[in-house]
Design goal:
The complex is a heterotetramer, with 2 copies of chain A (about 240 residues) and 2 copies of chain C (about 220 residues).
Chain A (H helix, E strand, L loop, with lengths): L7 H4 L8 E4 L9 H14 L5 E4 L9 H7 L3 E6 L8 H8 L4 E4 L2 H13 L3 E4 L13 E4 L2 E7 L3 E12 L4 E2 L8 H7 E12 L18 E4 L6 H6 L9
Parallel strand pairs in A: 1-2, 1-8, 2-3, 3-4, 8-10, 10-11
Antiparallel strand pairs in A: 5-7, 6-7, 8-9
Chain C lengths: L6 H10 L6 E4 L18 E4 L3 E2 L29 E2 L2 H9 L5 E4 L3 E3 L4 E2 L14 H4 L5 E6 L10 E2 L14 E4 L2 E6 L2 E7 L5 H6 L5 E2 L5 E2 L6
Parallel strand pairs in C: 1-2, 1-5, 5-8, 6-9, 8-10, 12-13, 12-14
Antiparallel strand pairs in C: 2-3, 3-4, 6-7, 10-11, 11-12
The chains are: A alpha/beta (about 240), C alpha/beta (about 220).
Amino acid sequence: MDKAVADLATAVAGIEDGMTVMIGGFGGSGGPIELIHALIDRYLATGHPKNLTVINNNAGNGHVGLAALIEQGMVKKLICSFPRSADPVVFTERYRAGEIELELVPQGTLAERIRAGGAGIPAFYTPTSYGTDLAAGKPVEEFEGRPYVRERWLKADYALVKAHVGDRLGNLTYRMAARNFGPLMCMAAKTTVVQVSHLVEPGGIDPEAVVTPGIFVQKVVEVASPAQEEELNRAKAVYPEAK
Amino acid sequence: MDKAVADLATAVAGIEDGMTVMIGGFGGSGGPIELIHALIDRYLATGHPKNLTVINNNAGNGHVGLAALIEQGMVKKLICSFPRSADPVVFTERYRAGEIELELVPQGTLAERIRAGGAGIPAFYTPTSYGTDLAAGKPVEEFEGRPYVRERWLKADYALVKAHVGDRLGNLTYRMAARNFGPLMCMAAKTTVVQVSHLVEPGGIDPEAVVTPGIFVQKVVEVASPAQEEELNRAKAVYPEAK
Amino acid sequence: MTAKLSPTQMAWRAAQDIEDGAYVNLGIGFPEMVAKFQPPGRQAIFHTENGILGFGEAPKPGEEDWDLINAGKKAVTLKPGTAFFHHADSFAMVRGGHLDVAILGAYEVAETGDLANWSTGPKGVPAVGGAMDLVHGARRVAVMTDHVTKDGRPKLLKHCTLPLTGVGCVTRIYSSLAVIDIEGGRFVLREKLPSLSLDELQALTGAELVVPGPVVDLIVPDL
Amino acid sequence: MTAKLSPTQMAWRAAQDIEDGAYVNLGIGFPEMVAKFQPPGRQAIFHTENGILGFGEAPKPGEEDWDLINAGKKAVTLKPGTAFFHHADSFAMVRGGHLDVAILGAYEVAETGDLANWSTGPKGVPAVGGAMDLVHGARRVAVMTDHVTKDGRPKLLKHCTLPLTGVGCVTRIYSSLAVIDIEGGRFVLREKLPSLSLDELQALTGAELVVPGPVVDLIVPDL
């Protein structure tokens, strides 16, 4: 078995119109910029995929990565906790124009819903959001006299995740706080596609240090020196470069 | 801050009559034998603690560790998934005599209930046990046409856990499959007491390799060459040695 | 020559259906033998409930590391690509539908796919382990079982009489006499020992065997 | 001389209540400054929602590693004993009651402990982040806030008028004029600027200030 694929285009080939796609990252850290840009390349060449539902903590920053995906008009709906950033102009404009739907989810609930999707837990109760507008319409139940809101799992057709070291079986480690949603999204998607900075043979990762076991990963592609969203934005980068 | 305590007696000092105690381990791997034996020593010297509710995957093996705790009559109730072992005589006799209560929980549900206790999730739904005797009396609900059983969190007053390397802030790594329930139980107890084979200073564990972050741990005690339950049982060990 | 398949032979047959790269959980006891009979060129990745993915075969006696065991508490070994994880992650793999195949033992299987394999009734100490979790989530849930009990009564039934492990969960049965799929609440016969007539097999089975297509001879090497 | 405390001074005051070894989450913005004012000999361990425990202060400009950031997307540093974990584990720490203290900003706080700090109403793009999680779970949920709005209206109220972040969750308020506990659904005054009379403070507060014991002078260094 070898989950490594040769290039980014192959890695994102299966994503189709209308699919739900989880995209890792918190702000810029952990954002799979190269996978996202490969998806944009495909859209520019073929007109697909479009009408995507994207699950990410944020809504993109500047004009690269998730923001660029939104800027192309590929995203129909965004499920996120914090659609603000240093430069949220792309999302903000689309949102104000009514061109993109937003489901706002508290950050911890977002993480837990994704984990639940991966763990076969269709619903769980959380104290978070009780008594707030974000609990509107959700079932409430008391346990030991305290009220809790019932939340549903989140699953996706695809997850696009950035990891640090990956082996050909899909075992992964992450780099510092770029870990964030990655391990959860790997669990919750039918097909998880991971860009790794270092592709190694099985055995190249200490079995104790594996963060995402390979069972949660379907495709691995090596991107040796990945771009960092924060640095791209400081350089005022735009993707694609020439419109 | 220094969570390291000098000896095993200090480590288990706060456990009182009637408390709920989670004990790590799956079969013999990960069993905190020395912590359990320190608790037995205290009981033999003072008559306390007794009437404990113990949460463990199994019910002990032979006459050491959890089996010895049960043999002393310190355990009122056991919550576990599989109360059988190569030599389950201690539990089996107490159970048949009606001297110990048993709550049988499917293994994955047991793990998830403990995690839920640690994660502030009072209840969740699982497909496991639907339609079986172990779902009797539990609420059932359908999601997307499939039935699920609602399960409650499990929490404890104390957790006794064995880890491999621990630093003075309570950060932990485990050794191979001895990890099992350890990281979950650390999360779910008011006071988590961990025996580590190697106590190190903060910084002695790679931040990427930490399995249990120190926030989940209250006391750490070094037991440099811990006994392995399987080996004790092969040697027909009994604790305490001389009755 | 074989009036019925041995457990080893059932394990061999079950192994033939496991694809290269499949994620597989083998139940404690006879199903564990399935790992030994993977066809050449195929390499499944074995999962054990206690937190290992991709472990290797048993070590030599005396070389056991008792922190490196499977769910049956038997020593296993490391392989390149092994990963360790805790119990909640392990059962996320199970419940979350990430396993391709789970192979379990059975006391009784009903034509509805109901399985009873954890309790023989109110006597004795009940123990369930991971069985109730494993029957949910794996894409294929197969059982490996003698076709009849030791005293000759059918184990494949219209309804289970023993306490259930799961409802409507079994998709294929590797019995000592036949290979049977469960489809639409019926036992669908796929393969049977050539020495046995369909009528003879039906007489040993507690619910109707449906035969929608050709029945393949179940031929297994002497093992 | 200070008519009111600056955000830096409020942060200093809040820092005085944090014990050695406490696990603390500091909200984005002004609360982040609390970390700078820990009294000598005390060392709290800071948690950030995006998966770091025990991080250190900001790096020098130019030395940032953008994989090592806090929830405010600002660069932080490693310290001996830092640990990384994923988002579900991070919020298990929050929701599971493992934090000792969370300090947040506020638009409005009610005497019931209700907090509004995420939305100023239907205009603009709504964004909640981790605020609704942080108000549950931490043993002490404190807010740091100007006592009144920019146009002089009270922010401490009988009932919040803006969309709630959480119900009955705030236990202490570090305002620009006073330190107030929330107990039994009342604002209990603990400390106030000595330059301000109780009546003056009450006039700037939207619900009754209860004064069950001595009110300590709120004295903060010039910062």
